[in-house]
Amino acid sequence: MTDTNMQKILIIGIPGAGKSTLSFKLAEILNLPLIHLDRHFWNPGWVETDRDIWREKVKELILGEKWIIDGNYDSSLDLRIPACDTIIFLNFSTMLGLWRALKRSIFFRHRPRPDMAEGCREKIDFEFYTWIWNFRKRIRPRVFEMLDKHGDGKNIIIFKRQSEVDLFLNRLGSSKIQSAS
Hints:
Elements: E1 8-13, H1 19-30, E2 34-36, H2 37-41, E3 42-43, E4 47-48, H3 51-61, E5 67-70, H4 77-83, E6 86-90, H5 94-107, H6 126-138, H7 140-150, E7 155-159, H8 162-180
Parallel strand pairs: 1-5, 1-6, 2-5, 6-7
Antiparallel strand pairs: 3-4
């Protein structure tokens, strides 16, 4: 699939994998609007959005003609997968996810990340690390189930290593430079 066919991209994967970093880079290369689900789901003080309200928000977010949406939120994959043309799944190891999430917590400590809602300052959160620890066992099977159920005709890209993501971005960036010449 060429980059001109990638107009509605989902980026999902284990927390700490680099979904937001990848989405920032892709948005720049492809010149697509970027939507971070964390900004829309969380309210100040790490208060979750009610499930019914959340699903309505997601329905509004996917109405755009072009976008990159980063974030897991498996409770809305049934809405987002049918609306997209490309799914990038960062199927990285648990240890990498934990390490990067901890590093991120330290780097952004006491302030919100650029992809996070206002009023949600980064913190060391053992409940979140437990969720990451259990991601491959509890969430990943549901992701694959949703991809099987709703992913027909979609460009599904699964990366298992950072080097694969880097190569993908380099190739995509090079093709954009060549097409601009």
